[in-house]
Design brief:
By secondary structure, this protein is an alpha/beta fold. Helix content is 20%, strand content 24%. The chain has helices at 30-36, 50-53, 75-82, 84-97, 116-122, 155-163, 182-194, 223-229, 274-279, and strands at 61-65, 101-107, 125-127, 140-146, 177-181, 200-207, 213-218, 240-246, 249-252, 268-273, 286-287, 305-306, 311-315, 330-331, 338-339, 344-347, 357-358, 363-368, 372-377. Helix 4 (84-97) runs parallel beside helix 5 (116-122). The termini are close together.
């Protein structure tokens, strides 16, 4: 493992074009391009993102979920600040072609340091919390500010608060909206504007670690590498667990950390005391420890550092919980093949909801299964 000099990454990392026309909306099938880039929901769900965009002709609004409600997350805010021009140009491109409005749903206390660049780049109309929901006839780019509550990060709650739209078992698209997490939306901008597939993930490491880390890592990076970067090279102790997610919404990783490869949906890894986790499971295995921990008192890294592992184990389905609804991709490489970052290693399964996947480091393919591709770095 190497930590790229140990220095934060500059804001121009993976900068997409900022000319709206360069995204080519309407020129080539939007859905196919998103699928080929292997984009999955980066906010935590991991569902193939192209599935939402199949219904782009049925909607007139995009809600950008810029809430980032977990207290130890800063990745979406960082994207919004450092890549404001790209996000603004991408929003404009949609407004010029298929949408009437783009609403950035964020928290009021993000304004200034975190949101200033995005507000300026978009020249958005700003709604304060007491002014919500937005007017039915509002068009263009709108920044909708909510209060500081965890629940606003949930798609259904945010949509109801911002647009007075209530969803149950139906979907936002049934009400004229596409809801997309900021990192996912930015990945789509990179794919459409510069042809970049998803090969890396912004991720945090926190919990019972000596320090909070904000890292940019290749997809498939073993959890052990991230924990070592946060000062816990041995991983969880005998009375601790490793969880995937933030303090309010995480799930225990029930496998050896060395066998857990970061997926396109992984936002954070937490080391949690086993008893604390057990006392705060609230259904379907979810762990919510927002209350017992003073999370907001911790110093957070607010610039990502690049990490380059010696090996990656790339999952061919970003969230295995969707198996049966979405399918694993079909490997297109074999052990012994030499690959470079961005090379396709798996194609979408035919006649199924499925994504392509790509090499995240340069190296040699050493193992291929129906669920993973392992690459050893050069």
């Amino acid at each position: 493992m190497s930590l790229l000099d140990g220095t934060p990454m500059s804001g121009d990392t993976q900068q997409a074009p900022v000319d709206g026309a360069s995204f080519g909306l309407g020129e080539q099938p939007l859905v196919d391009r998103i699928r080929r880039a292997g984009i999955a929901g980066a906010g935590g769900a991991g569902f193939p993102a192209y599935a939402k965009w199949k219904r782009i002709d049925e909607v007139d609004g995009l809600l950008l979920n810029h809430q980032e409600s977990e207290p130890d997350f800063v990745k979406d805010r960082w994207i919004g600040r450092e890549h404001a021009e790209t996000l603004a140009a991408f929003c404009d491109a949609f407004l010029e072609t298929v949408l009437d409005r783009v609403v950035i749903g964020t928290k009021e206390h993000y304004r200034g340091v975190w949101l200033g660049a995005l507000e300026e780049a978009t020249d958005a109309t700003v709604y304060e919390p007491e002014e919500l929901p937005i007017d039915d006839g509002e068009t263009g780019i709108i920044v909708a500010c909510t209060g500081d509550r965890y629940e606003y990060g949930m798609e259904s709650v945010l949509l109801r608060t911002v647009a007075d739209t209530v969803i149950g078992r139906d979907l936002p698209m049934d009400h004229g909206w596409i809801v997309q997490n900021t990192e996912t939306f930015y990945n789509i901008a990179l794919a459409l504007g510069d042809g970049k597939p998803v090969t890396h993930k912004l991720i945090h490491v926190d919990g019972d670690t000596p320090r909070h880390r904000f890292l940019r890592v290749p997809v498939g990076t073993p959890a052990t590498e991230l924990l070592a970067a946060a000062g816990r090279p041995g991983g969880p102790g005998s009375h601790e667990i490793l969880a995937d997610g933030g303090p309010g919404w995480s799930f225990e990783i029930e496998r050896d950390p060395d066998m857990f490869g970061v997926t396109k949906r992984t936002n954070c890894l937490l080391i949690i005391d086993e008893t604390l986790a057990e006392d705060n499971r609230i259904g379907n295995g979810r762990i919510n420890i927002l209350g017992p921990q003073a999370w907001k008192g911790r110093t957070l890294e607010d610039e990502p550092t690049g990490l380059e592992p010696d090996r990656v184990r790339i999952p061919l389905l970003s969230n295995p919980d969707y198996e049966g609804v979405a399918d694993y991709a079909n490997p297109t490489v074999s052990p012994g093949d030499d690959v470079t970052v961005g090379d396709r290693i798996a194609r979408p399964a035919e006649d199924a909801i499925s994504n392509a996947h790509h090499a995240s480091i340069d190296g040699e393919v050493t193992a291929v299964t129906e669920h993973h591709v392992t690459i050893e770095g050069r």
